[in-house]
Amino acid sequence: MTYSVAVSGASGYAGGEILRLLAAHPDVEIRTVTAHSNAGQPLVAHQPHLRSLAHLTLQDTTPEVLAGHDIVFLALPHGQSGQYTDALGDTPLVIDAGADHRLTSSAEWDAFYGGAFHEPWTYGVPELLVGGDKQREVLRSATRIAAPGCNASTVSLSLAPGVAAGVIDPGDIVSVLAVGPSGAGKSLKTNLLASEILGSANPYAVGGTHRHIPEIRQALAAARPSTDSGAQDIRISFTPVLVPMSRGILATCTAPIAEGVSDAEIRQAWESAYGDETFVQLLPEGSFPRTADVLGANTALVGLAIDRAANRVTVVTAVDNLVKGTAGAAVQSMNIARGLPETRALSVNGVAP
Ligand SMILES: NC(=O)c1ccc[n+]([C@@H]2O[C@H](COP(=O)([O-])OP(=O)(O)OC[C@H]3O[C@@H](n4cnc5c(N)ncnc54)[C@H](OP(=O)(O)O)[C@@H]3O)[C@@H](O)[C@H]2O)c1
Fold it and tell me: How many domains does the structure of the chain reveal?
């Protein structure tokens, strides 16, 4: 079967990356691409790298244009998806790259985003541990999927094995991330101008204000074998720093080692979580990833160190924010939800140099 697909936000970074991946997918036909201010223009005027889709024109993003497809991807600014998702009731599979359907708590939505709260959808990070299982099991029957925040999924994948196994204390997590500006989207912002970013490392959303914090706490709470305990005891100090690379996230996460846990038990937690995974790979002891190694790949590379002097575990994870952090997670989740091979149209290899 060939699935007809519509991609909204097709002139943006996330929409463009979804299209790049789907263009190589043998089971989909990209029928419709939509945008907002750029509607009416050729897709390639905004995505000149997508040569095989040169025949497509950006249409207006309306429920009528998006309806009638087998699969709809929404890649819109947060707060915009809800209005379309309500109108897509008949669409068999809808995948939202935005935040609108990620959070289960309306109080957290109000505190970090504001505006209308929309019901939570199935979270699109297949490798995440959830209650002793993996999120891919939940995704198999999903018809509505919330693709993750790029920083959020990077931190959650980094620490979920330790939280699930009880080998780290989730009450004192510290995460500092080097992130490329494509994570903030394509629209013009003064703080993202080349003259502000080149040759500089710029922290932002410092001091507990970043919108991905509740998403991480929610994912780590769900990682525990019993989800009864909620996220109340999960505390994270989260600081992103913009660095001059167009794509990529390098997350350095540390957390205290739980009492009485051996080094072997710590490493075993990550090995058993990711030993069989294609796209989340634990590096050998003493090795740590670089963002360059996952450029264009749907791969998260994870390096783990046990710092006994500080009594903390240090996890360094590299992802491409637009692939594993968004579009790759969305396509991987689509594959699972449609019963297709999970890795179809997704590359484990990066582009180098
Ligand atoms: N960038 C990432 O690494 C990343 C990672 C994870 C998740 N996401 C999520 O993906 C979504 C899109 O992000 P992005 O980085 O691709 O942003 P972007 O580059 O700024 O693209 C935004 C897209 O949405 C369209 N748009 C803007 N306002 C709209 C409206 N009112 N109605 C309909 N369409 C509208 C734009 O169309 P025009 O160009 O025609 O105005 C453009 O196609 C966001 O929710 C973001 O949080 C992004």
Answer: 2
pTM exceeds 0.70 for this model: yes
How high is the mean pLDDT of the chain?
96
Residues with beta carbon inside 6 Å of ligand 1?
9-15, 35-38, 61, 75-78, 80, 97-99, 149-150, 182-183, 185-187, 321-322, 325-326
Q: Which atom of ligand 1 is nearest to the CA of 16?
A: 16
Q: Coil, strand, or helix at residue 225?
A: coil
pLDDT digits (tens, 9 = 90+) for 297-319: 999 999 999 999 999 999 999 99
Q: What CATH number should be reported for the domain holding residue 15?
A: 3.40.50.720
Same domain, 167 and 94: no
253 belongs to the catalytic site: no
CB-based contacts of 83, cutoff 8 Å, min separation 6: none
- Counting DSSP H helices and E strands in the chain, the numbers are 11, 16
| 351 domain residue, yes or no | no
Task: Report the distance separating Cα 7 and Cα 301, nearest Å.
Answer: 28
Whether residue 162 sits in one domain with residue 80? no
Expressed as residue numbers, the domain containing 49 is 3-148+324-337
Across residues 201-226, what is the average pLDDT?
Answer: 95
Catalytic residue among 150, 152, 223, 257: 150
Place of tokens 């990070």: 125
Same domain, 226 and 157: yes
